[in-house]
Design a protein that fits this description.
- One of its GO terms (biological process) is vesicle tethering involved in exocytosis.
- 74% of the residues lie in helices and 2% in strands.
- It has 811 residues and is mainly alpha-helical.
Length: 811
């Protein structure tokens, strides 16, 4: 084991020595460290091994030196032979140097003279050079003074910059240059103050010229809009690219084309087109901007300019108190705003960074909110539709103009919907007056036409078609009154007026169609309906007028489909479109017709009440007069003549016939029922205490006349005795008292076959008590007669039985 370990150690030491010999000295450390990491005393054995290796190398070096020693000795011998030749050469070189020094003394003297002349020449050149450096500085400073005197400040600043950076540094060691350098900052401040003063003058001037700039821009926008509309019509193109208005007299469209501004009307073709540059001198802004930029204070200038323009924007946006009174007030307001933003747009594109798109957008958003609030407030004061329409046109031109300069105007077009509502309201108020005037001037009688020309004139104004009337000879009458074609014409006029507002709103045909239909619906359902309702309620409108109103509303209702066709022809939007709004005229005219019918019934009843109030019965008469009362005959005659009006309504049209028959039948039935009720109330009046049999007989004669009137069929169409049934209650009550058939009444009471089924016990009791009191009063001295006593007892018996029936009914 010990021998093996010794062999391994020797082998390891041998490897380490080879590694030390073949490795760089800087990397020996790890190798040596491995020696000390081995077994104890291993380093001693390694040192012994290392010493042995060193001795081996020393022997090899000694062998090498002994091998080359003879060659070294030979070399030394050759060197000793050359030393004699070297000494000889040294002597020759020394002699040659001496002779050369003697020959160069004259050349040295001449060389020193040349050097002195060259120094003088150099000094003269230096002087000239310095003078040449100073002369441009003086010339530039003189030029600077001239530029300041001629107010060429930007050029003066450039000259100062050249002096500071180029010329003065070349001759800065001279006193006069130092004085110049000290004066330059003071001159800069003077230029700065002068340019700022010019800017303030410009800002003041631009306020005066904004109105004119805006007017010019809006006029150009209007000319382009007119031109584009004309081109679109001629080329039958539905959409024409909207131009963007520029400041150089040319127009760039959205598709990149250029159109000159001289393409307007022929009268304006030769007129010079003014731009913002023609109306406003922008040089103070450019000059001041350049000056502050050169001076390194551009940010201060930008902040000042933007702050002042914001203040001016707020002033421009303040409207005059009476702006809403005239269109010129709105025009001036829009011109000032357009002028302001046209100038800002020019500054944005003509300068780099003085104003940014973000700044102009911020100004515009602030202005837009203020403009919308102002227009919303002032337009609400306007009650003239023409003025509202002018305002709408101005807003459209205003929006188109600013949109051409890249400003977002969607909110302005949204505002136009509010203005449209205001416009519709003013139109409705105006048309309400027109309708009232038409109704006041109408004679409420059929339109007479004497000739075919008159007939064609009426038909051209109103879509009336009736084959039966067309076959009739002239002269003839049309069923409606004069107000019908006038109303129809006025509705079309309102549609035209609404269409005017819809122009230039950049809306689709469907949206315009919807606007027109909604406006028409408002006119029919609100304005015309209200006027008709008020007309029907007026006291001076009689039954004849009400009948004519019913006819008129029927014709207007039938004309609604022609109004729909009229709107469709204007907008080219099919009525079958899903979102197409329908006209509500049918309901409007039906409601008006029902109101007129109700008013007819009410007026008939009122007239009947007036006749009833003329009744003057002598309730205590012994016998009747033998004929009906005069007031009742007058009432019946009035009813006959009134229902003849219904009978003579034009019934050649099935609708007319059914309408007139229905109204006449309803009115006749209502009148008969009301007359029957009024006569019944007259008998049962609580203020009437006594009534005689003679009065009952007289009352019976009047009821007979009423029944005769009902049976005479005053209005055709009633079946059987339908109309006479209105008086059945009175008839059975009077028959009961006239026949004095109380036994039958009491015996059959409650039976369906009762002859006096419609007689109420309470009614009979009330009337019988009035007759009972009369019998007592008239038969004070005849109570001793047997018949009278029996009759009185019978009355008392019947009264008791009726009271028991009444009490039974109440319980």
């Amino acid at each position: 084991m010990a021998e093996n370990e010794t062999l391994e150690c020797i082998t390891e030491h041998e490897r380490i020595l080879q590694e030390i010999e073949s490795t760089d000295t800087a990397c020996v450390g790890p190798t040596l460290r491995s020696i000390y990491d081995d077994q104890p005393n291993a380093h001693k054995r390694f040192m012994e091994k290392l010493d042995a290796r060193i001795r081996n190398h020393d022997r090899e070096i000694e062998k090498m030196c002994n091998f080359h020693h003879q060659g070294f000795v030979d070399a030394i011998t050759e060197l000793l032979k050359v030393r004699a030749d070297a000494e000889k050469l040294m002597g020759q070189v020394t002699d040659t140097d001496r002779r050369l020094q003697e020959a160069g003394r004259e050349v040295t003297a001449q060389t020193e003279e040349v050097i002195r002349c060259r120094i003088q020449q150099r000094n003269m050149a230096t002087t000239v050079e310095k003078l040449q450096l100073c002369i441009p500085v003086l010339e530039m400073y003189s030029k600077l003074k001239e530029q300041l005197e001629s107010k060429r400040y930007y050029a003066a600043l450039k000259t100062m910059e050249q002096l500071e950076k180029v010329f003065i540094p070349r001759v800065s060691q001279y006193r006069f240059c130092q004085i110049m350098a000290e004066n330059l900052p003071r001159l800069r401040e003077e230029i700065k103050e002068i340019s700022m003063s010019d800017l303030k003058d410009f800002l003041e001037s631009i306020r005066k010229h904004s109105d004119k700039v805006g007017e010019t821009a809006m006029r150009q926008a209007q000319q382009h809009r007119t031109f584009n509309s004309a081109v679109a019509k001629q080329s039958s193109i539905g959409h024409y690219t909207k131009p963007v208005y520029s400041l150089n007299g040319q127009t760039h469209t959205q598709n990149g084309l250029m159109i000159n501004d001289d393409t307007g009307d022929e009268e304006e073709a030769d007129e010079e087109i003014l731009t913002a540059q023609d109306l406003v001198d922008f040089s103070p802004v450019y000059r001041c901007l350049h000056i502050y930029t050169v001076l390194g204070d551009r940010e201060t200038f930008e902040n000042y300019y933007r702050k002042q323009r914001k203040k001016q924007a707020r002033l421009v946006l303040q409207p005059q108190a009476n702006m809403h009174e005239t269109v010129e007030g709105y025009r001036r307001y829009f011109n000032q705003i357009v002028g302001f933003f046209v100038v800002e747009d020019h500054i944005l594109h003509a300068t780099r960074g003085l104003v940014t798109r973000a700044f102009t957008d911020e100004l515009w958003n602030m202005a837009l909110s203020k403009i919308i609030a102002v227009l919303r407030t002032h337009s609400s004061y306007c009650d003239d539709p023409d003025l509202v329409l002018e305002l709408k046109n101005l807003i459209v031109i205003f929006a188109d103009t600013l949109q051409g300069y890249g400003f977002l105007v969607n909110r302005l077009f949204d505002l136009l919907f509010e203005v449209r509502d205001q416009y519709n309201e003013t139109l409705l108020k105006k048309w309400a007056l027109v309708f009232r005037e038409i109704f006041e001037l109408d004679n409420y009688s059929p339109i007479p036409v004497e000739t075919e020309e008159e007939y064609k004139l009426v038909v051209s104004r109103f879509p009336f078609h009736d084959a039966e009337i067309e076959k009739q000879d002239f002269p003839k009458k049309l069923p409606m009154s004069q107000s019908v074609p006038q109303i129809y014409t006025q509705v079309k006029e309102l549609i035209y007026a609404s269409l005017k507002f819809s122009e230039s709103l950049h809306r689709s045909s469907t949206e315009i169609d919807d606007m027109l239909r909604k406006s028409t619906n408002l006119l029919l359902t609100r304005t015309l309906s209200s006027c008709l309702q008020n007309l029907i309620k007026k006291p001076h409108i009689g039954l004849t007028e009400l009948v004519q109103i019913i006819i008129n509303t029927t014709h207007l209702e039938q004309a609604c489909k022609y109004l729909e066709e009229f709107i469709t022809n204007i907008t080219n939007v099919s009525p079958e479109t899903v979102h197409t709004t329908r006209l509500y005229g049918l309901a409007t005219f039906k409601d008006a017709r029902h109101a007129a019918e109700g008013e007819i019934y009410t007026k008939l009843n009122q007239k009947i009440d007036e006749f009833i109030q003329l009744a003057d019965y002598e309730w205590g008469m012994a016998e009747s007069d033998g004929r009906a009362s005069g007031y009742l005959m007058d009432l019946i005659n009035f009813l006959r003549s009134t229902f003849q009006v219904f009978t003579h309504l034009p019934n050649n049209n099935n609708d007319h016939a059914s309408m007139s028959g229905k109204v006449a039948q309803t009115a006749c039935m209502s009148a008969c029922k009301h007359l029957s009720t009024s006569l019944m109330q007259m008998l049962l009046d609580t203020e009437l205490k006594q009534i005689s049999m003679g009065a009952i007989q007289q009352f019976n004669l009047d009821v007979i006349q009423c029944e005769l009137f009902a049976s005479s069929e005053p209005v055709p169409g009633f079946q059987g005795d339908t109309l006479q049934l209105a008086f059945i209650d009175l008839r059975q009550l009077l028959d009961l008292f006239m026949v004095w058939d109380w036994s039958t009444y009491l015996a059959d009471y409650g039976q369906p076959t009762n002859k006096y089924l419609r007689v109420n016990p309470a009614t009979a009791l009330a009337l019988l008590e009035k007759m009972k009191d009369t019998s007592k009063k008239n038969n004070i001295f005849s109570q001793f007669r047997k018949n009278d006593r029996d009759k009185q007892k019978l009355i008392e018996t019947v009264v008791k039985q009726l009271r028991s029936l009444v009490n039974g009914m109440s319980s």
